[in-house]
Model the fold of this input.
Amino acid sequence: MKKIKLLTVFFIFVEISLCQHAKIELDGASTIIINKNIYGHFAEHLGRCIYDGFYKDGKIRMDIVNALKKIHVPILRWPGGCFADQYHWKDGIGNKKNRLVTVNTTWGMITEDNSFGTHEFLQLCELIGCEPYIAGNVGTGTPQEMENWIEYLNYDGNSTLANLRNTNGHAQPFHVSYWGIGNESWGCGGEMTAEYYSNQYKRYASFCMDYPGTTLKKIVSGANGDDYNWTETCMKNIPTEDMWGIGLHYYTLTDGWNHKGSATNFSEEQYFNSLKNCLRMKELIEKHSAILDKYDPSKKVALVVDEWGIWKDAESGTNPAFLYQQNSLRDALIAATTLNIFNNHCERVKMANLAQTVNVLQALILTSGDTMLLTPTYYVFDLFKVHQNSKWIPIKIASPNYTYNDQSIPAINASASVDINGVAHISLVNLDSKKNIAVSIEMSESQYKNITAQVLTSEKFNDVNTFSNPNKVIIHSFTDFKKDGKTLSVNMPSKSIVVLELK
Done:
């Protein structure tokens, strides 16, 4: 992580109309960076994410690759998810005609021909220009299997496994650093207790070796939502020097797992409840981080939110086990709000992976045959890419409430950063379904002469992009702001995302 030294100290004040002042402070002496891996993604052998998604007719789809390159995807997690703990890596290497044909018992009892395996995944990462994050098999695998996979990928020398990699077309090591030691070990990864898993972690991790040129970043399979005991037990039982990070999984639901509801046909009450549940991410991060602080006060261990997003019912007429759902403006607001939360907790959150990249859950991209479309969530990542590896600006906001049925949530959320060139970015979200909100930004320094902005919004909160109308919800230029001396006034439309650039 590169330290950025700035000689000037800026203070920016944000005032929401009819509210007290809120303040954004940029401390030139600070070295807290928004790790680019917060903007990571997730690809599982689930439904049409891999096959008929990333990989079609035996080839990686370059239209998808190019779309992901544009938003600077930094890291991609694979092969799961629940699939990871039934995946045996040797099934997916070598001549495709000779690869073992298995059954994906987790996601729909469908045939898995293993034509997309380790080499194909790492080729995909190379084409995108991102780092790979591999989730290892602790559920049905062995420590030796994981040890061998790491040697196969990372050893640059003479061994049977390294020579096999060469025979399979890759003479040089892949240098894969990020390794998850199991996935959801409290559930689909083996129904383990925290005590049992933490012992298994130590057993498996002790055989995960650093090879010359590659230092492993080992990640503990973390808690399900508010299971603070899981985090406490793992942090107590596993030495912090034996982990790079610890996971956290949280999905936004409307009314619970048994009543997830439609991704497109929902009421304002369901819209409000989804946003309220999305905002709970802040509480989860802060409470899990407090546990980490007890055992790791220097904050060397990363909190890795390696599964997050909104989970709705599968679209009518599709295989329910494939988890294919449409993607609305509501999903974009949830994504932007969650990314603002991650940015504002970047001292501890160092990686996150949206579930999932193509055709599954809160996807960036949907495909139909050879055609693809970009979802509203994709455009959030396009807007927010400016925060990657930029220096975080701490932000405090006094916001009006968005109220529905006597319940209230803050209408405005935001995060801010300054990049290596001294360009500042402020990402603002207005969750209110009906009201525009005037935001006044007071800057103690007025050196910013050139200010531009972009907006993502639409007429209805359940508007979506479709194959017949792929540009319903896209980014537009935004000009409803003005600067007067040290004051920048922004009129935030209802249910909108605005990103300001200040030069």
Notes: DSSP finds nine helices and 27 strands in the chain.
